[in-house]
Design goal:
heterotrimer, A mainly alpha (315), B mainly alpha (306), C alpha/beta (251), A: 315 residues, C: 251 residues, alpha/beta, six-stranded mixed sheet, four-stranded antiparallel sheet, 9 helices, globular
Chain lengths: 315, 306, 251
């Protein structure tokens, strides 16, 4: 990766790192809480961008992984495991399994049929958790406290929780950017650009696509564990199709393919929603048309508009 | 399990299926002919219901409301087409998803702003109110029977339109190869507008028809939209026949599954386990069905060959 | 005597009632270059698609070095050593020419399930890619995106990709199509240069090129192979002359 291509990402992460310090002097700690929430969704959007941007796999069920991660925390804490890393590991395994199994079915279809298949599986998981009254069903489950990190309640401080989320986001970004440039990433990209040509060279699309689903699902699962800790509450609504749609919107808004664009898209979408909600409780009257305008006029998303040269595919 | 209960739920399932068909028909055509992912189709249905409620309040009667809603829903659909959707026909699905998602947000909030969040009611027409006895012990609302009847008539009319008129032939041709149709000198823009407007009108019509028996509230179209997508995927995108069969299947399986699923499971499991599993599985059934269909036929039951 | 590299027996393909490939049989020995000619719509590209595995056949067998590959799909045949170029140029538009060819190298060298380590820096991938690009004369355009190449350069890129696979058999579908006279001459020289190292089956319309390069020529008309032989034999064949060539073309 050229240094120039990395500039937007560096600027972005620098800004995110400095944000809580600015917030301390500015408004209130609420901003840091909000910031952590935004970082979590940015993490989920980042993983979705990997799927959509590198693999051309438009998943309309990605919020399911947020749910898997969140409920992993619930189930783990019921079983007495309250260490965050252990919970994240459980989430990763569960998410990877779900991704592999559903991917096996969904990837037999292509185009819109694939999209709808991912939606179906997201809905199945949603209804499953709605029916589990032991976990609160539709009303959700309240966690008694945040998870512990290496035995200590490090997450209780909103400040340190923010930086934990930022660290997770930065790590995920580095990993995905690296994977995109690897042999695997190149093959995945080739399958996206010209599946027939890729097959004529001897590449079978299926294994690469399933692997991409597993990677993206696992990362979104981790985001789910963080989400559970952020709100100390978990509900099936975390994995509604509307949530999946919002994740897609954040990714598309940011500009598909650049990875850092998805982070920017999440920040923009959620900040906008939050800001507008201070002015009116009818935020969607403004956000809706905005999305329409962006869709019609902005084909490369925010990343494409702000830094055209660095907004191409990460590979 | 009484025969009467089975009959009632079968009829309910048919009614849901017919409703789904009216919504899915427009969706599958839009998709098939224009390759356009229209997430906003669900709010089209909702707008139809709200228009019916508004006209009913103004004119005081159901029939006049229905008569006014049809052209209004058509006009509304065409307005969306002209203002927003026609700029997205040759864009990728992602842009279409983004835009139509924005339309959903806007309209769901919009109806809440204009009419409030509380459900509106639409009066049931006198002539169709009440229930009739279909067989001993089986009472069924007349209105719902009328709904089924109207829906079947519409399906028949649609079938005749698509398969036996020139316009229908153009639509079918457009589903297979829009560029070719255009090259043959047909004004493809007008065809698109026609298809879109007609689909919007059908959805609005469905919304108006169910307004007396369902609550008219913001977001009422959201879950039906998802079901409609399930229907067109199972049926095969672009196929009216597929949409019809799939809609009936989905309506019946969903309704009967919810009612009788736990009972059937009791044959194999303990009552409490059956009840738990039944409640978990019932809403999932149609998604399991869709996944199973896609596994065997990745392009739906009646795929339109492009 | 070793079996022919490619042996086609009674190959057939139908689209409903339309017979596109009609009982086609021929064989190609290693090291030879055969060309398939025939009028438009004769089914040449369909045949290439059947041979490469892009299109399943309705009848007949395809033997590759004695192995029955009729049931093998496209990637499987590529792995066995069947490389092809496409009639309508098919490359990876967002990758550079070098990356395109390096991908072909990657397909044949080790696992693609390596998640770390930059593929762009791998000498094991780049060195053979440079060699292939050099061979077809595209070295100067290595860093340019494939979609920015001219039509002729894209055709050469496809050949480079085929070479990078180190194939046993190359199936080239109209490699000279759309090339100017200079480009065609260069391409013909390239193919002649490759003849000594690779077995090739060409589909072509350019009869000058065909008669200059081919060891054997097959004539496909309405899906049937009406003749197969050396260029001289084909030139002399009365059936071929009346069906396709026409007296003037051979003058």
């Amino acid at each position: 990766m050229t240094a120039r291509g990395q500039t937007p990402a560096i600027v972005l992460f620098a800004g995110l790192a400095l944000f809580p310090l600015a917030a301390r002097f500015g408004a209130d700690a609420y901003l840091v809480t909000l910031g952590a929430r935004i970082l979590i969704f940015a993490l989920a959007a980042l993983s979705l961008d990997f799927l959509v941007g590198q693999g051309a796999l438009v998943s309309f069920g990605h919020a399911a992984y947020l749910g898997i991660g969140a409920y992993s925390v619930v189930l783990a804490s019921i079983a007495g495991i309250d260490d965050l890393l252990a919970q994240a590991l459980i989430a990763i395994v569960a998410a990877a399994l779900f991704a592999a199994l559903t991917g096996y079915v969904s990837l037999r279809a292509s185009g819109v049929y694939y999209i709808m298949s991912t939606l179906a599986f997201g809905q199945m998981l949603y209804f499953l958790f709605v029916s589990l009254s032991a976990l609160g069903g539709d009303d959700g489950y309240t966690l008694s406290s945040r998870s512990r990190l290496i035995g200590k309640p490090l997450l209780e401080s909103d400040f340190s929780f923010y930086y934990l989320c930022l660290a997770a986001l930065a790590l995920a970004y580095l990993v995905l950017a690296r994977v995109a440039k690897s042999r695997f990433g190149r093959a995945l990209n080739a399958v996206r650009q010209n599946p027939l040509r890729a097959r004529a060279l001897g590449f079978r699309p299926f294994p690469f696509q399933v692997a991409a689903c597993v990677i993206a699902g696992a990362i979104a699962g981790v985001a789910g564990t963080l989400l559970a800790n952020q709100s100390e509450f978990v509900a099936p609504a975390f994995m509604s199709w509307q949530r999946s749609g919002e994740l897609l919107v954040m990714t598309i808004l940011g500009g598909v393919g650049s990875l850092w664009g998805a982070i920017l898209g999440a920040i923009t979408y959620l900040t906008l929603e939050e800001t507008l909600s201070l002015l009116t409780d009818q935020t969607h009257l403004l956000i809706g048309p905005l999305l329409v305008v962006v869709a019609i006029f902005g084909s490369r998303g925010l990343a494409g508009a702000l830094a055209p040269k660095s907004s191409g595919r990460a590979a | 399990m009484s025969l009467a209960l089975l009959a009632v739920q079968t009829l309910n399932g048919l009614q849901l299926g017919i409703l789904l068909f009216l919504i899915a028909a427009g969706l599958t055509l839009t998709f098939g002919v224009m390759n356009f992912v229209n997430l906003a189709h669900g709010v089209q249905y909702m707008v139809g219901a709200y228009l019916a409620a508004m006209f009913a309040a103004l004119t005081g009667g159901f029939w006049s409301a229905l008569a006014l809603t049809l052209p209004a829903a058509l006009a509304f659909g065409l307005a969306l087409e002209v203002l927003i959707f026609r700029w997205l026909y040759d864009r990728d699905h992602l842009s279409q998803i983004l835009a139509t998602f924005g339309v959903i947000l806007f309209l769901n909030q919009g109806v809440k702003t204009i009419w409030g969040a509380a459900p509106l009611s639409v009066p049931m027409p006198e002539a169709l109110s009440g229930s009739i006895t279909l067989m001993p012990g089986l009472l069924f609302p007349v209105y719902r029977l009328a709904l089924i009847g109207v829906g079947l008539a519409t399906a028949l009319a649609l079938y005749l339109l698509i398969n036996h008129t020139r316009v229908g032939m153009l639509v079918r041709a457009g589903s297979t190869d829009a560029a070719m149709v255009s090259a043959l000198g047909v004004d493809i823009r007008r065809l698109f507008m026609l298809v879109f407007g007609f689909g919007a009108m059908l959805a609005g019509f469905a919304g108006a028809m169910v307004a007396p028996i369902l609550s008219v509230e913001p977001g009422m179209g959201d879950n039906l939209l998802i079901l409609a997508f399930v229907v067109i995927v199972i049926g095969g995108i672009g196929s009216i026949r597929g949409a019809f069969l799939a809609a009936l299947m989905v309506g019946l399986i969903d309704t009967l599954g919810r009612t009788f699923g736990p009972q059937l499971l009791r044959l194999a499991l303990s009552p409490s386990a059956a009840s738990q599993t039944g409640r978990a599985l019932a809403p999932m059934l149609i998604y399991i069905l869709m996944a199973a269909v896609l596994f065997e036929r990745p392009a739906g039951l009646f795929p339109v060959k492009r | 005597m070793s079996p022919p590299l490619l042996s086609v027996e009674g190959l057939a393909k139908r689209f409903g009632a339309l017979v596109v490939t009609d009982d086609v049989s021929f064989s190609l020995d290693e090291g030879r270059l055969a060309a398939l000619i025939g009028p438009n719509g004769a089914g040449k590209t369909t045949l290439i698609n059947q041979l490469s595995g892009a299109l399943p056949s309705d009848g007949g067998r395809i033997l590759f070095a004695g192995l029955d590959i009729s049931a093998y799909d496209l990637p499987a045949r590529a792995e066995l050593g069947l490389a092809r170029s496409f009639q309508i140029t098919s490359v990876f538009p967002e990758l550079s020419a070098l990356e395109n060819v390096a991908l072909a190298v990657q397909a044949r060298s080790g696992s693609s399930f390596r998640f770390f380590g930059r593929a762009a820096r791998e000498e094991a991938l780049n060195a053979p890619a440079w060699t292939a690009l050099e061979r077809v004369g595209l070295r100067a355009r290595a860093g340019d995106l494939a979609r920015e190449l001219s039509h002729g350069e894209k055709r050469l890129l496809e050949i480079a990709m085929a070479l990078a696979l180190r194939p046993r058999l190359m199936l080239l579908d109209e490699p000279f199509a759309g090339l100017g006279s200079d480009e065609t001459r260069a391409a013909v020289d390239l193919v002649r240069d490759l003849k000594s190292e690779y077995t090739m089956l060409l589909v072509e319309h350019d009869l000058d090129a065909v008669f200059a390069l081919a060891d054997e020529i097959g004539v496909l008309v309405n899906g049937r192979l009406i003749a197969w032989g050396t260029p001289d034999a084909i030139r002399a064949d009365a059936g071929v002359r009346s069906a396709y060539l026409g007296e003037e073309a051979l003058a």
